[in-house]
Amino acid sequence: MSAAAADAATPALLSVEAVSAGYGGATVIDGVSLAISQGEILTVLGKNGMGKTTLMKTIMGFVKAQAGRITLAGEEVTRRPPHAMARAGVAYAPQEFTIFQDLTVEENLRVGVPDDRTFAERVDSLADVFPRMLERLKQRAGTLSGGEQKMLIMSRAVLAQPRLMLIDEISEGLQPTMIDRMAEVLRATRERNGTAVLLVEQHLSFALSVADRFAVLKLGQIVEQGPAGDPGAASVLVHHLKV
Ligand SMILES: Nc1ncnc2c1ncn2[C@@H]1O[C@H](COP(=O)(O)OP(=O)(O)OP(=O)(O)O)[C@@H](O)[C@H]1O
């Protein structure tokens, strides 16, 4: 079999085919199609309110698709509930702060792994990623700074060693040094575990620095796609993201 034929025979890790979804009777994302291969980072960019979060919530099962089909490694997962998506190896880092404020850092991290043994095996891997989390395992999560809370959200997703991470605007409100750190973590996680990433962003330079490909979502539809390394990508994207 030629390499091209082998590629065609291997299903994408995530495939979103003509998916529409929204709230009540309203459609917010309208016939969206995209695919992500194992270990690939795709960034979906778009201005506020274009449907980026709705797309992620539809993949994760928080919002039920009105039409279309979603597959994970060739298996249909359309309208599967979020816990089933998590068990299938999809980790979701939402835009909102979703940590348990009254629990410790360690207790928050344990939520992301199936059992104590797995936690014990994996926790030290955070030393390469976010060593500060290891120093603060016993600290109450609510006392962390905003940037540290985002680190905790990412650490929890990384510890799950997912096949696919859905990450919603992780760079929002972060200092530039922390944004660089997030980029390193995403690259390292992909290298180490072959994790694929769907990265929803408005921060253009961060998104292009980590992604292999980009897609632009405008009023619920994909209007542009391409390789993130294309010399013209940034100017095309600035055009779509300008207010
Ligand atoms: N729970 C909801 N109920 C009703 N409408 C909603 C709900 N959540 C989002 N919307 C609407 O869906 C549209 C798309 O919102 P969405 O959050 O998906 O966009 P976004 O591109 O992620 O924007 P942002 O960057 O501001 O998060 C908006 O018009 C928004 O008002």
TrEMBL record:
The keyword Magnesium does not apply. One of its GO terms (molecular function) is ATP binding. CDD domains: ABC_TM1139_LivF_branched. Residues 14-240 form the ABC transporter domain. InterPro entries: AAA+_ATPase, ABC_transporter-like_ATP-bd, ABC_transporter-like_CS, BCAA_Transport_ATP-bd_LivF, P-loop_NTPase. Keywords: Amino-acid transport, ATP-binding, Nucleotide-binding, Transport. It holds the Pfam family ABC_tran. Belongs to the ABC transporter superfamily. This is ABC transporter ATP-binding protein. It comes from Paralimibaculum aggregatum.
